[in-house]
Amino acid sequence: MLSYNALISSSPPNPQVPNAPTSTNPQEVLPSYDFVGTIIKLQVNDVVFRIPEPQISKFASLKKLVEDARKADPHNLTLTITVRDTSELASDFLSTFSLFDTLVGLVDSSTESLISAARISTKYDYPKLRTLCIQELEKRTIGTMDRLRIGRTLGLTSWEDRACKELSERAEMITREEMLALGVDAYFQVASAREKQLRDERYPPKPTFNWRRDED
Q1: Among 108, 125, 138, 140, which residue's CB has the most CB atoms within a 10 Å radius?
Q2: Cα–Cα distance measured from residue 51 to residue 34, given in angstroms and rounded to the nearest whole number
Q3: Which residues contact 84 (CB under 8 A, 6 or more apart)?
Q4: Separation CA 30–CA 21 (nearest Å)
Q5: Model pLDDT for residues 43-94, shown as the tens digit of each residue
Q6: 36 CB contacts (<8 Å, ≥6 apart)?
Q7: What angle separates helix 144-154 from helix 127-137, to the nearest 10 degrees?
Q8: Could you write out the DSSP letters of every residue in 120-175?
Q9: Where in this protein does the record put region Disordered (predicted)?
C-alpha cells in the first residue's frame, strides 16, 4: 500500500480566496489561487494557480511543460504554463492541490475530491496519486452510473464491467438516461444479460436422466 505522506511536498500549499476583480481587462481579472513557495504559474483555462515547482513536477506532463518553458525563457524566475480543457478542469485542479494541504490523508477527503484528483493524475501523469485515489475510491459507496462514468474516465475496465453487471441483475428497468449513458455496445451487453436471466427463470433447463441398462 502506498503512503499518502509521500505525496506531501516540503512546502504544503495554502490556498487563498482571490480578491474581487477590479478591471475589465481579461488579463487582469483572472481568478488566482496562491500557494506557499510560488514558482510556477499554472494557467488552467481562465484560472491561474501559483504552485511550488517541486509539487507541480510530480505530474510528469506538467513537468515537461515547465522544462520547455524554462528552455524558452531561461532567465525568467516565474515561469507560466497553460493547459486548457473542459470547464471542470480548474475545479479539478483546485481539489487536487487541496488534497496536498489536508495532511490527514485521502481517507478524510470527499469522494468528489478523490474523483477530481484521480482525473487530474490520470490526465497529467502522476501514477502514485492515481493509485492512491483509486484505492480509496474502491472503499466508498458509489452509484452504478457514477461507477460507470468514473471507470471510463480512468480507464478502469473492471469498474465498467461491475456497473454493467449491477444493471443487468437489478429488478428495475433501464431508464432512457442510463441507456444513453451506456452507449450502444454496453447497453446491448446489459440487455442481453437481462434477457438471458429472464429466459432462464421462465424456462429452466429440464433435468436429465442417465439411463443405465443392467447387464444380465
Answers
A1: 125
A2: 7
A3: 44, 45
A4: 8
A5: 999 999 988 888 899 999 999 999 999 999 888 878 899 999 988 999 999 9
A6: 11, 12, 13, 14, 52
A7: 170
A8: HHHHTT-HHHHHHHHHHHTTS---HHHHHHHHHHHT-HHHHHHHHHHHHHSSSPPP
A9: 1-26
What pLDDT sits at residue 201?
72
Helix, coil or strand: residue 32: strand
Q: Determine the residue type at 8.
A: I
**For residue 126, which amino acid is it?**
Y
Q: Which residues pair with 81 in a beta bridge?
A: 42
CA atoms of 36 and 77, how far apart (whole Å)? 16
Q: Which three cell numbers stand for residue 93?
A: 485542479
CA pair distance 63, 69, nearest whole angstrom: 10
Nine cell digits for residue 182: 451506456
pTM: 0.69
- To which H or E segment does residue 114 belong? helix 111-123
The 3-state DSSP class for residue 80 equals strand
Among candidate residues 150, 66, 169, 69, the one with its CA nearest the CA of residue 112: 150
Closest CA to 91 of 112, 66, 67, 75: 112
Say if CB 52 and CB 37 are below 8 A apart. yes
